[in-house]
Amino acid sequence: MAAGGTIEAGRIAASQYLRNEGRLYVRVFPHKSVTSIPLETRMGKGKGEPEYWAAVIKPGTILYEIGGVSEEAARVCLARLAHKMPIRVRFVKRRAM
Fold first, then answer.
1. Mean pLDDT across the chain
2. How many structural domains does the chain have?
3. Is 93 among the domain residues?
């Protein structure tokens, strides 16, 4: 699972590198709320407040797409973005048709 803050941190890192040269597409959205009850709270008062929102990421899911820049610039941008991710990521290139 990737938290919404992690996805946003990657988006900010990529947009700062691109500087309006290319287009960045975020393909995932955090839909799942993760709740927690405060510490030292007695039992039986319900589920608790949402702590943060998360996205369930299965292996092989494309997280970000970049268009309008060279492949070398896209590799550098996505390498910066990969440092923000808590999971192992890979660069995938679309085949020419």
1. 88
2. 1
3. no
Q: What is the amino acid identity at position 45?
A: K
Do the beta carbons of residue 10 and residue 77 sit within 8 Å? no
pLDDT over threshold 80, residue 85: yes
Q: 6 in helix, strand or coil?
A: helix
**27 is written with which tokens?**
């393909």
State the alpha helices, DSSP H only, in 19-90.
71-82
| pLDDT tens for each residue of 4-43 | 788 889 999 999 999 888 899 999 998 999 999 988 888 8
Helix or strand or coil: residue 25? strand
CA 24, CA 14: separation in Å to the nearest integer? 8
